[in-house]
């Protein structure tokens, strides 16, 4: 299978699996927000590796077990949606990349906030503070000139 066809099949499978999960399954272990983030298909397409993100984080292992147990059902439903003669076997795994990305963004926001607070405390970046300092310096300079004249 060519790389382009493999990517197209992976995209179709991602959408089909997500629609099956959105429709809901009777398994109480799958009572969480589950998002299919990525699907990769082997060549030949016998196995599709499905990466999912789970919210809240504390339910990840429970949801993963539920997805593994329901994988045959999800495979059959997705195959019917896609009308594929041979639907690849689905292997589920937790995708941690979104959580890592979120933690990086939170760290950057914290640094940005600390920098802005540091600038305000020192007078940096505060135009009103610098204007007041400039005015005071100008007044002192003019008074010095007047006293020396």
Q: How would you portray this structure in words?
A:
This protein is of the alpha+beta class and 149 residues long. It has two domains: 3-95, GMP Synthetase, Chain A, domain 3, CATH 3.30.300; 101-148. It contains four helices and three strands. It has helices at 3-23, 60-82, 97-122, 127-148, and strands at residues 33-41, 47-55, 89-94. A three-stranded mixed sheet has the order 1-2-3. Helix 1 packs across helix 2 (60-82). The radius of gyration is 29 Å and the shape is elongated. The termini are far apart.
Secondary structure: elements and pairs:
Elements: H1 3-23, E1 33-41, E2 47-55, H2 60-82, E3 89-94, H3 97-122, H4 127-148
Parallel strand pairs: 2-3
Antiparallel strand pairs: 1-2
Helix pairs in contact: 1-2
Any descriptors?
alpha+beta; GMP Synthetase, Chain A, domain 3; three-stranded mixed β-sheet; 16% strand
CATH topology grouping of the largest domain: GMP Synthetase, Chain A, domain 3
Indicate the low-confidence ranges by residue numbers: none
Give me the strand/helix succession: HEEHEHH
- Structural class by SSE content: alpha+beta
CATH level 1 class label of the largest domain: Alpha Beta
Percentage beta strand: 15-25%
Mean pLDDT, all residues:
82
Shape: elongated
**Looking across the biggest beta sheet, what order are the strands in?**
1-2-3
Distance between the ends: 91 Å
The appropriate CATH architecture of the largest domain is 2-Layer Sandwich
Radius of gyration: 29 Å
Work out the helix count.
4
> Biggest β-sheet, characterized?
3 strands, mixed
CATH homologous group name of the largest domain? K homology (KH) domain
**Number of structural units classed as domains:** 2
The helix content is 55-70%
């Amino acid at each position: 299978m060519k790389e382009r066809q493999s990517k197209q099949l992976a995209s179709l499978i991602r959408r089909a699996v997500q629609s099956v999960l959105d429709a809901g399954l009777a398994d109480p272990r799958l009572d969480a927000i589950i998002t299919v983030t990525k699907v990769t298909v082997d060549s030949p397409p016998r196995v599709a590796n499905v990466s999912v993100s789970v919210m809240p984080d504390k339910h990840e292992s429970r949801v993963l077990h539920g997805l593994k147990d329901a994988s045959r059902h999800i495979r059959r439903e997705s195959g019917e949606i896609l009308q594929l003669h041979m639907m690849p076997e689905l292997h589920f795994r937790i995708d941690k990349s979104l959580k890592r990305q979120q933690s990086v963004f939170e760290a950057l926001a914290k640094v940005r906030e600390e920098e802005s607070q540091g600038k305000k405390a020192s007078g940096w970046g505060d135009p009103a503070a610098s204007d007041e300092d400039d005015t005071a310096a100008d007044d002192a300079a003019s008074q010095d000139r007047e006293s020396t004249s």
